[in-house]
Amino acid sequence: MIIENFKMYLDGGTVEVTTDKGVFCFDDRLGSNTKGRLFNGYPKKDNSNLIENYESLEVEIIENLKTFKDEFYQESIEAFILDKTN
To answer: Which domain covers residue 31, as residue numbers?
Structure first.
């Protein structure tokens, strides 16, 4: 997997990771019942794009984020990785 882009939304901190395998979002919307869960794209209101059995995909994304560099988001990326690995 190749990380192509990292971005954070102002909805509470949802993280979007664009890869060569698709666009994935870690939910952190304010008032969300699925905080921390992985979605295929930005979370839909009905959560219909929630990824089941996401654990191995999450590990793969986090591992590849460790080598991804972004001038604007680097501190956020490092904090996100630390949060997900602790």
So the answer is: 3-85
Tokens of 41: 């794209």
- In angstroms, how far is the first alpha carbon of the chain from the final one? 22
Residue 35 structure tokens: 């905080």
- Closest C-alpha among 54, 60, 67 to residue 27: 54
Task: Give the helix/strand (H/E) hosting 6.
Answer: strand 3-8
Reduced to 3 states (helix: H, G, I; strand: E, B; else coil), residue 67 is coil
CA–CA separation, 9 and 25 (whole Å): 10
86 pLDDT above the threshold of 90: no
pTM, rounded to two decimals: 0.92
Tens of pLDDT, residue by residue over 20-66, are 999 999 999 999 999 999 999 999 999 999 999 999 999 999 999 99
Number of domains in the chain: 1
